[in-house]
Protein: Membrane protein
Amino acid sequence: MRTTGNPAFRNLPTGGGYGGYATFDTPLGAGYGQQARPTAVERPMTIDDVVTKTAITLGLALVTGALTAYFHAYGLALPALLVGLVVSLVIIFRRTPSAPLVLTYAAAEGVLLGAISGLFNAIYPGIALQAILGTFGVFAAMLVVYKTGAVRVTPRLTKWVIGATVGAFLLMLADLLFSLFHVDTGLRDGGPLAIIFSLVVIGIAAFNFLLDFDAADRMIRAGLPAKFAWYAAFGLMTTLVWLYLEILRLLSYLQRQ
Structure:
């Protein structure tokens, strides 16, 4: 049974009539196999729906991020973090897709990233643009890799990516806890080990895109209603945010050398 390391998809219930795929199986519960099939007023989702919803979500995040950085509204970072966290949990555990919630999450993440980017850019001029270009470069590269079949999403690859994702987050959590006691693990101090760790995390985030693309494909093949494209947009957004922050961190390390 395939799953995904992306919490936006992984926490959706399983079962129903979608081949046991844990990523997008049953957001509507045990009766999902019957309830989620398109009705007379619900057309099935297409790749255009996923592209459009993702573009809207990312566009909103870019706008709110740019405005936050332009007006130096860095004090909004903490409220935006809290709003994004709460809304993301609601989206993950909600049984039906909600465009307003996904857009609220995107706006909050944009404010948070705009504040962080503004602070980094003040120290290392131009680093935010480099991180944005790097993020979309990785995204485009992994999309090509997926569409050409250069790397196939197999159960073994899925398990490896999920395991690597969980391992990376546990290491980051451990580093955070150690830092509270003024213990430096070397994972986030900008040294050689930190650079290597960031490169590994970026690679893991990039491979998560393959799982996200595969999940969206399976949603489309299952004939889910078009509104479920918002789930795909939300999932891709979470991976993009993670990747962007890690690239931004890596670039800051390299600037110090």
